[in-house]
Amino acid sequence: MYLYHKVEEITVSTSDSRHAIGAFILREHAHLSQYTIADIAEATFTSKPSITRFAKHLGFDGWRDFIRAFMAEELGEKDSKITVDPNFPFRPGDSDETIIQNIGDLQAAAIADTYDHLDRAMLRRAVRYLDAARIVRVFGLSPNCYVADLFCRKLVTIGKQASVVTAGETGIQSRALGRQDCAIFISYSGNTDHSSRSTAISTLMERGVSLIGITGAGDNFVRQTIPCTLTISSHERLYNKIANYSTEESINYLLNILFSCVFARNYERNLQYRLESSRVLEGERSVHSGDRPSEDDAEG
User: Fold this and answer.
1) Neighbour tally for 133: CB within 10 Å
2) I want to staple 217 with a disulfide (CB 3.0 to 4.6 A). Which of 75, 172, 234, 250 is the partner?
3) For 68-85, how does the pLDDT look when each residue is reduced to its tens digit (9 = 90+)?
């Protein structure tokens, strides 16, 4: 989790001096090094000790250390290969053609960025977990759970018992899994304000369940807790954006890689199962379609 994201979380979750300081940082992030601590205190109607405490809350010795790390992160963003703003890929007045080009470029860049950050050893470990799993459960909040639904459906077509854990069932589902099973946690920020999710991870670890984390870059709860993690392209803001264009594309790419690598481990068997499943599904569709009344019957 990048510093900018951590500042976003503080700003959204607080209403005291931390909110004012965080809002200033987010607003002036590109030019933050130009301000002294006194300037920021005056602009935010806070105090220099409050600003120092803000930096220490994020794990730094003081404001100077924070600024040094924050501006290094900003410089890294400028050097990124992503040329389209992932938060606002189009602006008022942009033509349809501009939007078409920008969204395509952004999605391609998100995949390329995910590819560059893909740890092959972690991937092999995750594939091994999934291939051996009796049951696969995916834990994630909206909208990540919608992308995960497609992944689970793919696993079902090759005979895996896979589903997304719905809200309110985190505890009961985590206690139902065991050593033969696998759980995937998807979280862009990687931090969990929901005690049910952190408790679920602890429960799953105690029960010997194989765990896979899919999370953003940088330090966060998921990365600290789950040894096997894959990295989402992490250039989107948490809140200040039009939509999750880049995040969704990155997560979908990672899940498609996982499914495809699992499929390839037993290619012929999985292909046969997949084709047989398709024939059964098509037969069920034909039956249901035949049950529908024709237009003549409906009119009669």
Assistant:
1) 22
2) 234
3) 999 988 877 766 677 899
- Is 296 domain-assigned? no
Q: Mean pLDDT, to the nearest integer, of 191-202?
A: 75
Give me the percent of the chain exceeding a pLDDT of 90. 69
* 139 Ramachandran zone, left/alpha/beta (phi>0; psi -120 to 50): beta
Q: Is the pTM of this model over 0.85?
A: no
CB 207: neighbour CB atoms within 10 A?
A: 15
Alpha carbon distance 242, 259 (integer Å): 29
CB environment 155-171: b (16+ within 10 A), e (fewer): bebbebebbbbeeeebe
Type of residue at 159: G
* CATH, residue 56: 1.10.10.10
Q: DSSP of 42-100, one letter per residue?
A: HHHT--HHHHHHHHHHTT-SSHHHHHHHHHHHHHHHHT-S--S-SS-SS-TT--HHHHH
Q: Which residue has the tokens 């040329």?
A: 83
CB atoms near residue 49 (< 10 Å): 11
Q: Do 122 and 233 fall within a single domain?
A: yes
Q: How many residues does the chain have?
A: 300
* Beta strands in the chain, from DSSP E residues, in sequence order: 135-140, 161-164, 182-187, 210-216, 229-232
Indicate whether 210 and 162 sit together in one domain: yes
Summarised one tens digit per residue, pLDDT across range 256-283 is 999 999 999 999 999 999 998 887 766 6
Q: Helix 96-116 and helix 245-265: axis angle, to 10°?
A: 50
